[in-house]
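Long-time lurker. I teach an intro course on protein structure, and each term I like to show students one example going from raw sequence to a predicted 3D structure in token notation. This year I'd like something fresh instead of my usual example. Would anyone be willing to generate the tokens for the chain below so I can use it in lecture? Attribution to the forum is fine with me.
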Amino acid sequence: MALPIFMTIILLGRCCSLENAGRGIRLYFATWDSSSIASGQLWQTATGQVFFSTGVGFGYYIAYASYNSKWSNAVQDAAIIVCSNCLFETIAAFAVFGVVGYLDINPINTPRLGAFEIGFLTYPAAIAAMPGANFWAVLFFLTLMLLGISSTYPMLDVIVTAIMDRYGHKLQRPIVAAVLVVVAFLISLMYCSQFGYYLLDGVDRWINNLALVFVVWSELALSTTIYRFKDVFTETGKPAWVVYNGGYFLGQILGVAVGHGVSGGAGAGLGFGIFFLGVIVSVFLSKTPTVSAPPFLNNNAYLKRFWFLAFYSGNQLRRDLNVIVGSGKNWNIPMFWSPLIRYISAPILFIVYSFAYPEFWTLRNDPVYIFGFILAHFCLIFAVCALVLPRYYDVFVPMHRLDDGKRVAAPGVLENLIVGQNEDMVETGFRSPKSLDDDFKKS
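-- Reply from a regular --
Happy to contribute to a lecture. Here you go:
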């Protein structure tokens, strides 16, 4: 992947030296337009770009983790990937805005530039102004082609890995990969037609703005809700768990709906109101847990109830992951990780997701956008069915992993102990407050 970096450095130097390039760079770093921050389309575009460039939501990391060492420093790797990606994109944007100034493009009176316009309009304009333009043009489009191929490999590898994990004893990997490549090639032919760009834009917009954002929101919200929920049932009772999480999800759904239908303030008020009402009712419905919460919450029964309903699943997920990824000198997942993804990232993503529907309303008479919108919702239905009817998706799960989700309730006990150690703890589901407090301090 050295060629894209090499080309970016060359373009960065050339684009920033073009006539009037400073005007575009000032648009990038020295111009503030607060009205744009309130634009749903801006947040959708930014979210889709970040997810696509880092691979979030596509399953890349799940597939590649299966080839990684079990004890790899995953937290450090995640930080390096995200920071380096953001840094590279921030620097590369100087080249884009240098050409924006050169072409005298003003965002106020110019249609939004997408990835295709940048790749096939702004950068080529800079290359055409370079000495030896033909050579650099060939090198640039070769780079684009290699980037396209390298982006396709991870997408296909996700499917190949899933198939081989389940049917690897019957199928050969080269054959599976070859079949998927041929199928992907045949599907892509429609994008090479006269209206291919138009069709690609219609599909890509809704897959990114609807399906991808919904999948990531589901991962954030459900991983901190369902993980080891039997532990919460045992300690608080099922009614309290249902009421609390009902308020959590209903607050987001109705809050966003009223926000779009009435006003943002009314939607925020209703959303927070439903959530806090669910918190109060569930805390009073809950039993008092017998297992220790963090030390500073142990002295109050209502705070212990709230801890188990609001934070137990996410915190236990963090602790169980840290047994593996945080071993030795590896970085640990920090304490704030689970509250961050459940109560900040997930609601924000749901708001971003909701912006797609008003946008579609403005494009509802366009048949290509209708096609992409329907296709994205088929992806949504497929994802929701996996949650509601998981047994029908066993066909995608390796045979030796079918029983992974069957766990007895063992509040506060680390996953590795449930799997193979300290069976006496698992049978009772009980740990002394002191041992749990020690675990909290360590993790």
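Some talking points for your students: Residues 133-167 form the longest helix (35 residues). The radius of gyration is 25 Å.
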